[in-house]
Write a structure and sequence with these properties.
Layout (H helix, E strand, L loop, with lengths): L6 H13 L4 H13 L1 H11 L7 H43 L1 E2 L9 E6 L4 E6 L11 E10 L2 E9 L10 E6 L5 E4 L2 E5 L2 E2 L2 H7 L9 H13 L7 E6 L6 E6 L5 H21 L5 E7 L5 E7 H7 L15 H15 L4
Length: about 350
């Protein structure tokens, strides 16, 4: 069949053919021409060939970024886990192995003290009660040091563990020439007497003025909590002239036995109150009797100083000059309360 197109005309038709815009006669003519002209056939084939995908490279980049992110995330998670493990190990080392200086104020300690005046020694036994709370610490590395007339007993404390279990510990301390012994930061022994927690909690409420009802209330309640003063009172203060008086007013006792117990307990607490309020001159207590009359008992500073003449040079106020002096007064009134002297 006659090739009725020249190569130039065929090239002009190729874009229309490739786009599908050529008419039927033009299309057939171009196809007859390319069937006989290899150069035009190659050119047309190139124009009508399907285009290469253009998203291949971006997809590779996305995959690469995802891989980088996964690796980075994995490294971050590993770093966090390693950090937490290191912190946990350091915490365990600090709490179970190294510990911290033992502090009796923060963690009350169970102990027993026995003195030997003839040998001038003091036996100290740190107790580990079986019913101790779960957060009660264990103690280790006990040390005793002396500075002049003061002995310091120190230790480390932490959570109980197989390395440092909660256990008892005993020691004997030479107190010849010693005036004070401190156990883990708190005064334990002074002037040949062991200090008790109840006595020292009351001693901490010492106040200089009888005209301070709030301070007097704290002092009285400390004695109530220590079991040394009956509760259920109201207070009256006489501060217009000396001697200043503090009166505890109670309701009527239910029986003679209850009246006797009330009198005995307040009488034993009176020296403590007079010692701890600097300008207090008299302590009194009152209650209605069975016949409706008001019964009033009074103890003065002078009378108690006379009764306790062997303590603090016969001055009741001097019994509060130091924790040890107050403890001796506490022990004496304790004997009064329980009829030991």
């Amino acid at each position: 069949m006659k090739n009725d197109l020249s190569c130039g005309v065929a090239r002009d038709l190729m874009p229309l053919y490739a786009e599908g815009l050529a008419g039927e006669e033009s299309r057939e003519a171009l196809e007859r021409h390319t069937a006989q002209c290899p150069a035009c056939a190659a050119r047309l084939a190139a124009m009508t060939a399907p285009e290469e995908p253009v998203m291949e490279e971006p997809e590779r980049e996305v995959d690469y970024l995802k891989t980088i992110r996964r690796k980075t995330k994995g490294r971050m998670v590993l770093a966090v886990v390693c950090t937490l493990l290191v912190l946990a190990a350091l915490w365990g080392l600090r709490v179970y192995v190294i510990g911290a200086p033992a502090d009796r104020e923060a963690h009350p300690m169970s102990f027993g003290v026995h003195t030997h005046p003839a040998e001038e020694t003091l036996d100290l036994r740190i107790l580990a009660p079986a019913d101790a709370p779960s957060d009660a610490p264990a103690y280790w590395d006990w040390e005793t040091t002396r500075e002049g007339e003061t002995v310091f007993i120190t230790a480390r404390q932490g959570r109980p563990s197989p390395i440092h279990p909660r256990e008892e510990y005993t020691m004997t301390i030479d107190v010849s020439g010693v005036k004070e012994v401190y156990l883990c930061g708190v005064l334990l022994w002074q002037d040949d007497v062991t200090l008790t927690a109840d006595a020292q909690s009351v001693y901490a409420c010492r106040t200089p003025y009888v005209g301070n009802p709030s301070a007097l209330g704290r002092l009285a309640q400390a004695l109530v909590q220590a079991g040394r003063l009956p509760d259920g009172y109201t207070m009256e203060l006489q501060t217009s002239h000396t001697p200043y008086r503090w009166t505890l007013c109670y309701r009527a006792p239910a029986s003679p036995a209850e009246e006797d117990l009330l009198n005995r307990r307040v009488e034993a607490a009176a020296p403590l109150l007079l010692a701890l309020v600097d300008n207090l001159g008299e302590i009194a207590w009152s209650y209605p009797s069975a016949d409706g009359e008001t019964v009033v008992h009074t103890l003065s500073q002078d009378r108690l100083s006379e009764i306790l003449g062997d303590l603090a040079g016969g001055d009741i106020k001097a019994c509060a000059q130091s924790p040890g002096a107050f403890q001796k007064l506490w022990n004496r009134t304790d004997a009064w309360l329980y009829g030991e002297s």
